[in-house]
Design brief:
This protein is 33% helix and 26% strand. It has 542 residues and is of the alpha/beta class. The protein folds into 3 domains: 2-179, Alpha-D-Glucose-1,6-Bisphosphate, subunit A, domain 3 (Alpha-D-Glucose-1,6-Bisphosphate, Chain A, domain 3), CATH 3.40.120; 184-406, Alpha-D-Glucose-1,6-Bisphosphate, subunit A, domain 3 (Alpha-D-Glucose-1,6-Bisphosphate, Chain A, domain 3), CATH 3.40.120; 408-541, TATA-Binding Protein (2-Layer Sandwich), CATH 3.30.310. It is globular, with a radius of gyration of 23 Å. 54% of the residues are buried. The structure holds 1-O-phosphono-alpha-D-glucopyranose (G1P) and zinc ion (ZN). Zinc ion (ZN) binds at residues 112-113, 276-278, 280-281.
Length: 542
Amino acid sequence: MIETIATTPYDDQKPGTSGLRKKVPHFRQPHYAENFIQSIFDAAGSDGGETLVIGGDGRFYNREVILIAIRMAAGNGYGRVIVGQGGLLSTPAASNLIRKRGASGGIILSASHNPGGPDGDFGIKYNIANGGPAPEKITTAIFEKSKAITRYRTWTETAPDISRLGETKLGDMVVEVVDPVADYASLMEELFDFEKIRDLVASGFTLRFDAMHAVTGPYATEILQNRLGAPAGSVINGTPLEDFGGGHPDPNAVHAATLINQMMSEKAPDFGAASDGDGDRNLVMGRGIVVSPSDSLAVLAANAHLAPGYAVGIAGIARSMPTSRAADRVAEARKIGIYETPTGWKFFGTLLDAGKVTICGEESAGTGSNHVREKDGLWAVLLWLNILAERRESVKSVLESHWTEFGRTFYQRHDYEEIDSEVAGELMGSLHDRLASMAGQRFGTLVVSEADDFSYKDPVDGSIATGQGVRIVFSGGSRIVYRLSGTGTKGATLRVYIERYEKDPAKRDQNPAAALKELIDTADVIGEIKKRTGRTAPDVVT
Ligand code: G1P
Ligand code: ZN
């Protein structure tokens, strides 16, 4: 029976860069999750009988909220929910299921790369029928609904067991529990030449994939070991755990340091990779080299035609504004479109739907294509493997020949975490105030050519997003970008993105810190970071 429960609004349910993210105790306040889920249903609207996909990255509190969401879906008139067994679905696998099964949307429970556990982070995100994150107009509507909510609808009976595959019913609604891996793995087989990759692996090519005790464990084990023949042990930390084994499932220099160190040794495998909590991010490495995500996007775009799924070539590339312009040089050379969007995958959806772009990427370890509407960690790994299987070269040599052909874009992101929100606001405010007078100013050898606050008009639906980050461009094309994170759960995180293009092959083998030294110093001078925050160094450099 449908049950209507009275509730009162919370005022802080505004979705950020990627859904609503808060600490677990915050989510456990009375009706907190219910309010947000009902606001999603209210904003999404329904004619009754639709299909909804539900799954998450397996972190602490995942199962409870999945059971709540199933009952609320029944209470709100959905005809069918498709749930990953045990409540697990990687974010790209959820996106695929929404598309493949014609669902009207999906609820993905994840806080991505943020730590899990009773005091860790939790998140709820809504994806629309194209499989992608809800665009701004829907997330704004969800927030509006959440501020005015007075009741939510649920189903009296408890939800069925989600650990067993198959269909059961909750009232009139079908609850279908599916293997989280099967459909996703078939999609990967359609896109990539598994036989070629199997041959590569059989020829002695070695790989290691760190699933960081997060959701990609079962996906990577099935695909890399069972289907592609990599020996057992190639996938490490492959069992999803509620607290990710106490770790921080973020495939970056800090949290994937063990694998990065292993990859730097003489005896390292030929290929190394890692993914994040919900399986949408990727880090790719070769023996002796870490591929920066912005370079990875450029290399994948330049070589995608080597994989069967992209053999006809790619229509265009989109990258988030702070992502380096390495991909732009590929687009220019190949005479295909290049789009610069605000941060967050939700801005790629319209471009992918309209067929303007095939490959998208962000500097934050996210790459993906039109096969789903999310970034996809294992997809990036498999495309790299497919390219290596065709070219029969090392990762290092693929990267170096890319730099020879297109030049090298040195790039770093500096994160200052948990700074006081007010101080962060003032720092950005001061940058805004100085933008108009910035052009023409000189800092050492650098002269500002342009300075603005990035605004974006979606070329497909005309929607506008303003205040997306401060860009300072110097003559010669070097760039510093400042923006505040929209995914943090504590204080503010200032992200500073720094890049410089080097065309001269003789100068391309420097390390990025050295190549960017003057820009890094200038970023502090212009941003007044030390002065305002008291911080003398970033917490994380990626
Ligand atoms: C971060 C990344 C962004 C990514 C998002 C979700 O957002 O910078 O590229 O889309 O996580 O994974 P931010 O915290 O910077 O708002
Ligand atoms: Zn993620």
